[in-house]
Amino acid sequence: MLTSLTSGLILGISAGMAPGPLLTLVISETLQHNVGSGIRVALAPLITDLPIILVMLFIVNELSSMQPVLGLISLAGGCFVFYLGYQNIQIKRVELDLQAKESRSLLKGVLTNILSPHPYLFWFSVGGPIVIKTMDSGTVAPLLFMFSFYTLLVGSKIVLAIAVGRSKQLLSGSLYLTTIRSLGLLLCGLALFLIGDGLSLVGVL
């Protein structure tokens, strides 16, 4: 249960603060309009992700009886998380497209998130296998993972929207870049754990 909570927290805050289409939209809407617009974008995963989670869990569950297949998925997930961590470590600055546009913040956030490959990749290769594995010990652990993941995924974006609204120099400062790189190191560590799980499932360890 503690592993589920820790994994959810690390993955949630890392996904929430890592540069990407949705975070870019959160920040650009905040800068162009107001903090409320940025917060509405941040809430988009709560609207879009449930169908994605259900479909990906169904697929992963169907494959879970074939341990080598699930092991390969876990290995792919570990490599994906390691790649995300490496990207965070390598980041130099955040670039935004701040062309003035009409504010339909929530709709933009929903469309951006549902058309992004990241939720599908995450829930198929990382989140799905974690949930399926933790379901062996009951329903509390997988629910704890999802709750902690989305609390920090959405919460960190909301905090960033508020911080950017108050200090528009935040993104060019060293604190944000240091935080992103530190989270990248945590992601790489978690990736090694996921890769170890995958190797165990395919019978290598």
Describe the SSE topology.
Elements: H1 2-17, H2 21-32, H3 35-42, H4 44-63, H5 67-90, H6 105-114, H7 117-134, H8 140-166, H9 174-201
Helix pairs in contact: 1-8, 1-9, 2-3, 2-6, 2-8, 3-6, 3-8, 4-6, 4-7, 5-7, 5-9, 7-8
Membrane topology: Multi-pass membrane protein
Protein name: LysE family translocator
Keywords: Cell membrane, Membrane, Transmembrane, Transmembrane helix
Notable features of this structure?
mainly alpha, globular, transmembrane, cell membrane, LeuE-type, transmembrane helix
Summary of the model, kept short:
Helix content is 80%, strand content 0%.
Total number of helices: 9
Report the strand count: 0
Structural class: mainly alpha
Counting structural domains, the number is 1
Helix content: over 70%
Mean pLDDT: 84
Unreliable stretches covering 5 or more consecutive residues? none
Output the helix-strand order. HHHHHHHHH
| Major β-sheet profile | none
* Ends distance: 23 Å
* Quaternary organization: single chain
Radius of gyration: 17 Å
How would you describe the shape? Answer: globular
